[in-house]
Amino acid sequence: MKLKDKISTLITGMLATFVLASCNDFLDRDPLGQFTEDDAPNALIGGKMYNVYYLMRSYNITAGIPAFMVHMVRSEDSEKGSDAGDGADQAAMWDDFQYTASNGTLSAYWGQNYKIIYQCNEILDDLENSEHKDELDNVRTKGEALFFRAYCYFNLVRAWGEVPLVTFKVKEAADANVPKTTADKIYEQIDKDLAEAEKCLPLTWTSEYTGRITWGAARSLHARTYMMRNDWDNMYDASTDVIKSGIYNLNTPVDKVFTVEGENCGESIFELQCESTDALKNSDVIGSQFCQVQGVRGAGEWDLGWGWHMGTTLIGQAFEPGDPRKDATLLYFRRSIDEPITPENTNKPYGESPVSTAMGAYFNKKAYTEPELRKKYTKDGFWVNIRLIRYPDVLLMAAEAANEKGIPGEAASYLEQVRAHARGTDSSILPKVTSTDQGTLRDAIRHERRVELALEPDRFYDLVRWGIAKEVLQAAGKNYQDKNALLPLPQDEIDKSNGVLVQNPNY
Fold first, then answer.
1. pLDDT single digits (tens) 293-320
2. Which long-range contacts (C-beta less than 8 Å, at least 24 apart) are formed by 242-251?
3. pTM of the full structure
């Protein structure tokens, strides 16, 4: 395996004092950890920034059950997975929309987002009070902190709507006990943070810093936040800015994008860097559980993980005939549920039968680990990077915004780039969409988002912003009601607030 020159390899040395502190609730520790303000200020700030990357790879926000339940399982294309007896309460909560404020994954997701926000606030406060705040490294660090704060507030506002807005350094737990802020005000802060981040961040980093946040990541995230608000003008400007930059490309074949070979390829805009070691030492620090949680739940050679977050029959049916993305996305390999799993029949499109149980039709191939690397690093896939923003997503954002703005030719052009990439050299599949009718193009772009971004975040949020969540999810047999667009606040957070936090309506 080629050595990765990436940010994750720097973490072990730079964060020795942070790792233990990061495992605890942020508000249960001294916000300054084991450092003091008299320590080397630039090293301290840099160490805190690396800690944010570590926190971002965590189980609760990108790599584990809380992240998958909030972002993926609520759509018609994903299921809880595993088996019926494993996490039945999570199936009821997320698959069937029987929301309960006491659900543990709800609290874990909330807490991890705020943990990162508080760390970013601390970094920004340190920089503001530093005599070296205008040095290039510190300007870029400021941009990273603003990006991650915006990213986490975007997670929160989509999930809950009104949430507490804390943009200052938290010294004591009581400092952060503030009432909810309107969603409009949260988005106002997100816009402010990302606009400033775009000014601070570089277009690219040198190879030893592969994976650090860039201008393109900030501008693409900004486009995504505008997309959630159906703000077509700003969404168009942000997404086309990224396209016109010429930084990104679609040169990597679709069957390679989610392999180790495809890590940090030309379409990678925001990709969390992960690593493993032969002996697994420090893999929990420099790697992630992204593949472990979603890995094939089998036996023997096919005991690759927990089997959570599986694709449904509906997503299998959504792909057009011959679309190579189906085999690159869905892991299916048995003609019937009774057929044994063997190395010879894996990855073969034998049929639509469930590969494990009735909990899902497919495992997620975008979280599949190569056999040779399993032998080297064990089955758990700690080394696999987490792709969070890809260039095809930006092209489809531009296509959607252009279409809604009445620029059909441009919309069709961006759409065709994504379809041509998937088509490859096979001209008999995925025909070009030639219609300039707005409704027809709208349906085509929505379809393309579904299959291109299948089993990635955030199909559920697309359904909500399009205003079709109830129609689609109820047709899929889910017990979705309009109120389920927003989650109930975690009950333990309400209890800790002593009346400051108020539960969302209808819960």
1. 999 887 777 788 999 999 999 999 999 9
2. 242/216, 242/269, 242/391, 242/394, 243/394, 243/395, 243/398, 243/414, 245/203, 245/215, 245/216, 247/203, 247/204, 247/216, 248/216, 248/391, 248/394, 249/391, 250/391, 250/392, 250/417, 250/418, 250/420, 250/421
3. 0.90
